[in-house]
């Protein structure tokens, strides 16, 4: 597909006075048909979708996977820098939504429009890997939360982690059957926020209590110099993973007009108020336990059993909702490509289709999660293989290509600097993550009860 002439590129909403349902730019046709709802959600609903991803149960692992290998200075500076560059890159991507006379509701549609059909396929493959591994990680977290909950009420050890992961995958599938598309989450986003605040608040309070009662902690970075290099690079990939979804065009597709301004409002909410709980639990968790912080913070905390039980249950339930967000691009593809165009989403034949197709997809996720439950390694590899390229490399290069006649030499140099830097970082982070997986594969056997 050829790139349209530069003077015809539509980058942002051109006429603010017409923003709304009558805005001609926002009423442009989509680049390809879809069976899911487009352009129906207010900006604040989209903001809660983004915030749900940021404050998912993954935050329970960041104190251990980010701060422990980076320390106070590296971890704190890294969090702030990652937030700044992520906000910048996502804003660039959001401004490309209306391009060449069409709304690009999928990342691969946008890449295909700019680069051609080969890049369409490559982008789809990278995004699939990104979302598949994120979903696998969610099922691991849900299994960990379920196992921790079980151990609070029974000490017989009968429920191993692989069993808990299998149950988690089944519950995630049940939820997926009943929520046909991303916009249908609505009230569930409210429940997700409540669940997130519950386990974050509980973890912070219990960590503070432990921190004040225990002797001084050790905050030194462990390991020999060579291993510290690899763990630092892996942690850098996890930093990027913490803020980004790898599916911003798909999320932006659901927002009401004006689509560019509204996605920017949602992004500002995500990176300001929406990130406060994330920072709180990361800093407090590491302060309380130092380099002994685990990759599931609720395994560190001590306190009343009922509080820990509620926190773990909230983490489990929130994970079920958050997974659905990151699985929605795959669901949209399957529904559009293979689903029936007849009847509503709750017609019997459409429900049966979701049971078979989504159930099969999540079964594969669950099998991989049970076989290789190394959560920190998943975050690092996902950030390296797909989050870096999708969020930073492609976003900067697509913006550069789409606006090549509008940018000054200094602006072009800035974008090329970002492209080269994040490409190198992506390659080195992938090597570091594979090294971690190889190391853990020697430590833990397949279907390990970690």
Automatic annotation (TrEMBL):
Name this polypeptide is given: Amino acid transporter transmembrane domain-containing protein
Gene: LOC123096729
Keyword Methyltransferase set for record: no
Domain Amino acid transporter transmembrane: 43-434
MF terms in GO: amino acid transmembrane transporter activity
Protein's organism: Triticum aestivum (Wheat)
Organism lineage string: Eukaryota, Viridiplantae, Streptophyta, Embryophyta, Tracheophyta
Any single biological process term in GO: amino acid transmembrane transport
Parts of the chain that traverse the membrane: 43-63, 70-89, 128-149, 161-181, 187-208, 229-247, 267-289, 310-331, 351-375, 382-402, 414-437
Record keywords, A-Z: Amino-acid transport, Membrane, Transmembrane, Transmembrane helix, Transport
Location of this chain's protein in the cell: Membrane
